[in-house]
C-alpha cells in the first residue's frame, strides 16, 4: 500500500515537472512514470573488482554532473525566476531534478558544488552556462555509452537506456541555450572555457572518491 502511494506521488510529480506541451516549438515528452516507480536494480552484479570500479566511477561522474547542473539551475532561478526566462529555466531544472533523484537512489549523494554567479550576467549569461555544462555532461554520457557498448551491450542494457535518455535531455538543454543568444555574451568563449574546466575538475575528483 505504501509502495502504491509512493508511485502515485511520483506520477503526480512527473506530470507537474514535464507536462505534455510544446515549448519553443519543441514537443515536451512526459516522464515515464513506470520507470520512475521501479526499483533501481539496473546494474548487473560485477564480475570482478575491475568491473565494479568501472561502474562505480561512471555513476559517480554522472551523479556529480547532475548535482552540479542542479546547483547551477537553482542559482539561476534565484536571480531570474521572476523574469520572462524563469519558466524555461524551471522546465530544464525540473528535468535535472529527476536525473539527480535517479542517481541518488542508484549511488547515494556525492557533493560537487557549483555557484550561482553566472545568473548575475542575465538571461544570456545563464544560458551560456547551460550550454557549457550540458555540453560537458553529454560528452561524458557519450563516452560512457561507447565504453559499455564495446564491453557488453546486452549486459548493460538498462544502464545504457538510462544514460542515453539523460544524454538526450542534456542535448535538448544545450540546444535551448544556443537559441537564447548565448554567443552574444561578452567573453562567451572565456566563460564557457572556465565553466567546462570546472566541470572536468569535478568529474576528475568524482572518479577518485
Question: Mind explaining what this structure looks like?
Answer:
With 209 residues, the chain is mostly helical. A hairpin with a 2-residue loop joins β1 (22-23) and β2 (26-27). The longest helix is centred in the first third of the chain and has 32 residues, at 49-80. It is 70% helix and 2% strand. It has helices spanning 2-17, 33-37, 49-80, 86-107, 123-151, 157-178, 188-207, and strands spanning 22-23, 26-27. It has a single domain (53-207), classed as Ferritin (Up-down Bundle).
Short synopsis of the structure:
InterPro entries: Ferritin-like_SF, Ubq_synth_Coq7. Pathway: Cofactor biosynthesis; ubiquinone biosynthesis. By secondary structure, the chain is mostly helical.
